[in-house]
Amino acid sequence: MAARRGRSDALPRRSSPAVAAPPRQPTRWSPARPRSPYVKGVAAWEQSQGWREARDHVVRLQALVAARRASTQHLLTKRLVTQFAHVAIEDLRVKNMTRSAKGTLDTPGRGVRAKSGLNRAVLDVGFGEIRRQLEYKAPLHGVRLSVVNPAYTSQTCHRCGHVDAKSRRSRDLFTCTSCCHSTHADIGAAINIKHRALEALEQEADRPRLPNTPE
Ligand SMILES: [Zn+2]
């Protein structure tokens, strides 16, 4: 450890003699005893009372958010399986959807902050948990659960079937580039999901089945 300089030579004294001071010795780094950032197994920056209080505060807030999310998910899925006989959801791959936009060092991505915000919003809803709850609650209530292919559900016009990414004018607005039908984007997508689920149901009904086979 470098020798600590005394207070007296921290600043040149006003009444210092006009003689030039000798050149300062270069600092000698001795590996003898490096200062450990850990004291009794706890990092030095985590030792203060304020840090611990702030940590506990954040932990409490996160637990509150988690509890509220869980209760909302159960309320929603319970309502779906008790009010409807047929529930259709998209077969969403949350893991693929929430991939980072960061890119690589050679080809850096664009809109990284925006994508990370969207990812947070997607994960905050907890689609995976909602689906898991629907999958076990639907049989309990005698409800049919359809899982449909999510491809282009938000780019397809539910009225004429035209598929165009440009039809999605903004986050909320959907205006078909072919027939000019306009609707809320999420409602249009939901109608498409319903259509797909009903189509799958009809195909299933048409399929011949051997007698006494479970569905
Ligand atoms: Zn259309």
Can you walk me through this structure?
The protein is mainly alpha-helical. Among the domains are: 54-99 and 117-148, no CATH class; 151-205, no CATH class. The protein is built from 5 helices and 6 strands, in the order ββαβαααβββα. The chain has helices spanning 49-83, 94-97, 112-125, 127-140, 185-206; strands at 38-39, 42-43, 86-90, 144-148, 173-175, 182-184. A two-stranded antiparallel sheet has the order 1-2. A hairpin with a 6-residue loop joins β5 (173-175) and β6. α1 runs parallel beside α4. The protein starts with 37 loop residues before the first strand and ends in a 9-residue tail after the last helix. The model has no long low-confidence stretch (mean pLDDT 83). Residues 157, 159-160, 162, 176, 178-179, 181 line the site of zinc ion (ZN). It comes from Streptomyces doudnae. Keywords: DNA-binding. Residues 127-193 form the Cas12f1-like TNB domain.
Walk across the major sheet and give the strand order: 1-2
Question: Would you tell me the overall average pLDDT?
Answer: 83
Low confidence ranges = none
* Class by SSE composition: mainly alpha
> Could you give the count of β-strands?
6
The rough form would be described as elongated
Helix share bin: 40-55%
User: How many H/I helices?
Assistant: 5
Please write the string of helix (H) and strand (E) elements: EEHEHHHEEEH
Q: What's the main sheet like?
A: 2 strands, antiparallel
GO molecular function: DNA binding
InterPro entries: Cas12f1-like_TNB, RNA-guided_DNA_endo/Transpos
Pfam family, one: Cas12f1-like_TNB
Keywords: DNA-binding
